[in-house]
Amino acid sequence: MPGRLIVLEGGDGSGKTTLTAALAALLGAEGHEVVATREPGGTPEGLVLRSLLLAESGTAWEAEAELLLITAARVQHVRRVISPALARGAVVLCDRFIGSTLAYQGGGSFIDPAIILGLHRDLVGDIWPDATLLLDLDPASALARSRARLAAAGHDEGRFEARDIDYHARVREAFLALARAYPGWTVLDAARPPEALLNAARAALAPLFPG
Question: The whole model's pTM is what?
Answer without folding.
Answer: 0.93
